[in-house]
Amino acid sequence: MDFCDKAVFELQKERPIFHSEDDLKLALALKIKEQNPKFEIRLERPIELEMIIRTGGTKIVRAPIDIIVIDENGGIYPIELKYKTKKACIPYNEEKYILAEHGATDTGRFSFRKDIFRIENFKSKNLNYKCGYVLILTNDKSYFEKNVFEKDNLDKHFSFHDGMLLNRSDLSWNYNKLDKTKFILKDDNILYDINSKMHWTCNSEYFYKLDLLKDYQITWNDFSKFEKTNFKYCLIKIEI
Predict the structure, then answer these.
(1) Interacting residues of 76 by C-beta distance below 8 A, sequence separation 6+
(2) 40 with 167: CB under 8 angstroms?
(3) Please, which pLDDT band fits residue 146 given cuts at 50, 70 and 90?
(4) Segment 59-78 mean pLDDT
(5) How far, in Å, CA of 144 to CA of 206, rounded?
């Protein structure tokens, strides 16, 4: 069990629920530091990455990595995390946890793949990179139970349900699912509606092409259980 696995394992005992993604981020960083006093921790460290646009070309994007861990030898371990919740009000340990309804699981699935892409590409700019991690913690069973690939959803190629093999090739959004009388794919490979307005998947970050360097086997594990909601997590270790 490496340091990130160990930190998540210990958090299960001490913090089975979090108020927000920032709450989870801080708790994980503190636990890693507690278990590894010689490690240095950085939060929200900005980096510049070259993102690939589906129509061709690239774009330099400046964005933060959630957690950077630096070991005593200068080795670097970037961590990206997501905390996706269904609406709930859960009392625990004399605190009330009022969880937001995040929804938008289609963009959540895309963003999970994007986090893996970002960590893989972080390596190319950091000679001291050792390995990286992508962690998602959620009580939304749509992520771990729902096989949107079999349902032929718009986001079918971004499904990362339990047992899924996440393919290294980005097959894009499943535009075959859309009503052909309402949307048309024009010569610029951008999808427009009948009013010549771009489909939301063709805007900004959702139009990046996210080919990965390898396939990833997806496994979900129990994190915590409450009366009306269960939390599961998926932790991907990125070794290239």
Answers:
(1) 68, 69, 70, 126, 128, 129, 130
(2) no
(3) confident
(4) 94
(5) 21
Tokens of 1: 């069990």
Closest alpha carbon to 166 in 100, 238, 105, 96: 238
Phi, psi for residue 88 in degrees, rounded to 5: -165, 155
pLDDT at 115 over 80: yes
Rounded to 5°, the CA angle 64-69-70 comes to 120
Diameter of the chain by CA atoms? 61
Taking each helix axis from N to C terminus, what angle separates 3-14 and 21-35, rounded to the nearest 10 degrees? 120
- Phi then psi dihedrals of residue 33, to 5 deg: -65, -40
User: In whole angstroms, how far apart are CA 177 and each of 15, 77, 152, 160, 174?
Assistant: 40, 39, 7, 19, 6
* Cβ neighbours, 10 Å, residue 57: 8
8 contacts 136 by C-beta, under 8 angstroms: no
Average pLDDT, the chain: 91
Contact present, 199 and 80 (Cβ < 8 Å)? no
For 69-89, what is the mean pLDDT? 95
Provide the pairing of β-strand 216-217 with 165-166: antiparallel
